[in-house]
Amino acid sequence: MAEEKQYEEIAAPQPRGVIEPGSVEYVRDDDGTMSLVAHLTELRSRLIKCLVAVALGSCVGYFFIDKIMHYITLPAGKLYYMQPSEAFFTYLKVACVTGFLLALPIVFWHVWRFFLPALTHKERAVLGIIVPTSVILFFAGLAFSFFLVLPAGIRFFMGFNSAELEAMFSVDKYFDFVIMFVMPFGFIFELPLIITIMGKMGIITSAFLKKYQRIVIFLSFVVGALITPTPDIFTQSMIALPIIVLYEVGYFIVRYVLRN
């Protein structure tokens, strides 16, 4: 009898909601929900994995730092550093930003997996399309800005050279300018996706979008003035015009594709 009792204690099932160390799946309660501890444990695990992905991407970025800096500095040419440690810390910033961009698909995937249990099958199918689309649009915005808009902006600012003035860009300030100039385009290019989602949900219609076209044009220049690193109208226009075009793309999708 003692042996049978000992066997039953060993074979007794673990209570629901308890997370076994090293387990892949998080045990749920009887109603299918996860406990607060389980949510926090999963969140911590996914945050650690995202940070590891960013760290590994940063190592890759630092390994190729010379090639990356070569392409970053192409629009401006030769740069200068005014302090002994300025170039080193700028290289570290470039490597970290590169690591974040390389790890971005992994970060999006973990965010999607974290919210996946709370979604219905239909919502999962929709997010399965939205998540990769948002990543593609984000990188498309970065590429558009870096290869088309940034060189035009640099040429504009270097046009002030004269016999009395010569452009001498600091490597740290130049990289900060590039980040502040390029990054907003990644988020701006998400605009058609946001409009399409809201149109699909019935929150907005094509009539609503057409009604506020003039206001969007005005606000586009306001946003351009707020997020650009310089106050000139040229840089503001380089951000405002893509917003207007992307808004019109969203309007076209809602009216002629969704027919809403």
From TrEMBL:
<feature type="transmembrane region" description="Helical">
    <location>
        <begin position="174"/>
        <end position="195"/>
    </location>
</feature>
<keyword id="KW-0812">Transmembrane</keyword>
<dbReference type="Pfam" id="PF00902">
    <property type="entry name" value="TatC"/>
</dbReference>
<keyword id="KW-0811">Translocation</keyword>
<feature type="transmembrane region" description="Helical">
    <location>
        <begin position="47"/>
        <end position="65"/>
    </location>
</feature>
<dbReference type="GO" id="GO:0043953">
    <property type="term" value="P:protein transport by the Tat complex"/>
</dbReference>
<keyword id="KW-1003">Cell membrane</keyword>
<dbReference type="GO" id="GO:0009977">
    <property type="term" value="F:proton motive force dependent protein transmembrane transporter activity"/>
</dbReference>
<comment type="similarity">
    <text>Belongs to the TatC family.</text>
</comment>
<feature type="transmembrane region" description="Helical">
    <location>
        <begin position="88"/>
        <end position="112"/>
    </location>
</feature>
<feature type="transmembrane region" description="Helical">
    <location>
        <begin position="124"/>
        <end position="154"/>
    </location>
</feature>
<protein>
    <recommendedName>
        <fullName>Sec-independent protein translocase protein TatC</fullName>
    </recommendedName>
</protein>
<keyword id="KW-1133">Transmembrane helix</keyword>
<keyword id="KW-0653">Protein transport</keyword>
<keyword id="KW-0472">Membrane</keyword>
<comment type="function">
    <text>Part of the twin-arginine translocation (Tat) system that transports large folded proteins containing a characteristic twin-arginine motif in their signal peptide across membranes.</text>
</comment>
<keyword id="KW-0813">Transport</keyword>
<dbReference type="GO" id="GO:0033281">
    <property type="term" value="C:TAT protein transport complex"/>
</dbReference>
<comment type="subunit">
    <text>Forms a complex with TatA.</text>
</comment>
<feature type="transmembrane region" description="Helical">
    <location>
        <begin position="239"/>
        <end position="258"/>
    </location>
</feature>
<feature type="transmembrane region" description="Helical">
    <location>
        <begin position="215"/>
        <end position="233"/>
    </location>
</feature>
<dbReference type="GO" id="GO:0065002">
    <property type="term" value="P:intracellular protein transmembrane transport"/>
</dbReference>
<dbReference type="InterPro" id="IPR002033">
    <property type="entry name" value="TatC"/>
</dbReference>
